[in-house]
Design brief:
By secondary structure, this protein is mostly helical. The protein is built from 7 helices and no strands. Helix 2 runs antiparallel to helix 5, helix 3 crosses helix 4 and helix 5 runs antiparallel to helix 7. About 15% of the residues are buried.
Length: about 180
């Protein structure tokens, strides 16, 4: 099953008829590995800790690490551009704080593998949004890649449920008496 996701990623990265990768593709792959680690540990600690504190710690640590990396690479970290104020507020409140809070809260009730499967749709959503919002063309290889990601997600979910003996939801202390 994971090979379907990986092959979908490869097809989505392909440009035209060639399958070439650039620095951004490699960074995307590294980020995927880091996100997998994040999902596993968030799933573990979301069941044990207060969701608000866990989210605060996650965002605080990444903010501090980002400032340190920015400082040590010689970039200006705290530069104010008034023209991006509205976009910054929107991204901080909704795309970061709200998204992390919802993800952390929901990972109390669903398994890390199910969360990861949901995250697999991110490149598909990105491609669809790029198509509609900025008129980006999705070639045949991009469509094949999106299809392979969706197929891998569906097959993984079916296999996961069958292996775990789950109905619609995994059995946790929150869902056993439902």
């Amino acid at each position: 099953m994971p090979y379907s996701h990986l092959s979908g990623f490869i097809f989505l990265c392909a440009t035209g008829t060639s399958c070439s990768f650039n620095k951004g593709d490699l960074l995307g792959l590294i980020c995927s590995i880091c996100i997998a680690i994040h999902i596993i540990y968030t799933g573990k600690y979301a069941r044990e800790c207060d969701v608000y504190w866990l989210t605060t710690i996650q965002l605080g640590v990444i903010g501090l690490l980002s400032l340190l990396i920015t400082y040590f690479t010689g970039h200006d970290a705290l530069v104010w551009y008034p023209e991006i104020r509205d976009a910054l507020i929107l991204c901080v409140l909704f795309a970061t704080i709200f998204a992390f809070l919802v993800q952390t809260g929901m990972q109390q009730f669903i398994s890390a593998p199910s969360t990861a499967l949901i995250f697999c749709l991110e490149p598909v959503f990105a491609a669809v949004c790029a198509y509609f919002l900025i008129d980006e063309k999705i070639g045949v290889t991009g469509l094949i890649g999106a299809g392979l990601i969706l197929l891998g997600m569906i097959l993984s979910e079916i296999k996961l449920k069958k292996l775990m003996g789950w109905g619609v939801y995994p059995q946790t202390e929150h869902t056993q008496n439902v």
